[in-house]
Amino acid sequence: MALYSENRQAAAQAVLFHAAVASRAGLNVTDVTCLALLDKEGPMTAGQLARRTGLSKGGAITAVIDRLEKGGFARRRRDAVDRRQVIVELVRDGAYAELQGIFERFSKAYTALIEEYTDAEIAVLLDFARRSNELVRSQTEEIRSR
């Protein structure tokens, strides 16, 4: 099972990469995960962020948002439609800009690697990645629901 072994190694390397990024920013991996979600999916409520990360809606997500806000990575704002809702959003021109630079360098290197493959090979890799991601997502959900 060489592929399984390499995939586990890739997952471990991804965790170490995110830990290094987090350490550089004075954050932890959970904080960086939340930043990545906000970057990919856009502003959301604390409750939505908690659900997406599996953190508790009360103290845990509040502590994350407090750290992100204190570090200048994110801010809270009232929803324009429902003033009771508080939205969390990235501050792209703040401390997050340095992290974006790190992720952009990684993205360029990753894109260069992908470009070494044919379209047919990429299609197989993409199918595997999607199915693998869904497997991990469903297994994570199963663990959380027990």
Automatic annotation (TrEMBL):
**Keyword line:** DNA-binding
Pinpoint the HTH marR-type domain residues. 1-134
Q: Which GO terms describe its biological process?
A: response to stress
Under the heading Gene3D superfamilies, the entry gives:
Winged helix-like DNA-binding domain superfamily/Winged helix DNA-binding domain
What are the recorded GO MF terms, alphabetically? DNA binding; DNA-binding transcription factor activity
Q: Which Pfam families match?
A: MarR
Supply the InterPro entries for this chain: HTH_MarR-typ (IPR000835), MarR/SlyA-like (IPR039422), WH-like_DNA-bd_sf (IPR036388), WH_DNA-bd_sf (IPR036390)
What PROSITE patterns would the database entry show? HTH_MARR_2
Which PANTHER family does this one have?
TRANSCRIPTIONAL REGULATOR, MARR FAMILY, TRANSCRIPTIONAL REGULATORY PROTEIN
What's the protein here called? DNA-binding transcriptional regulator, MarR family
Question: Which species does the entry assign this protein to?
Answer: Thermostaphylospora chromogena
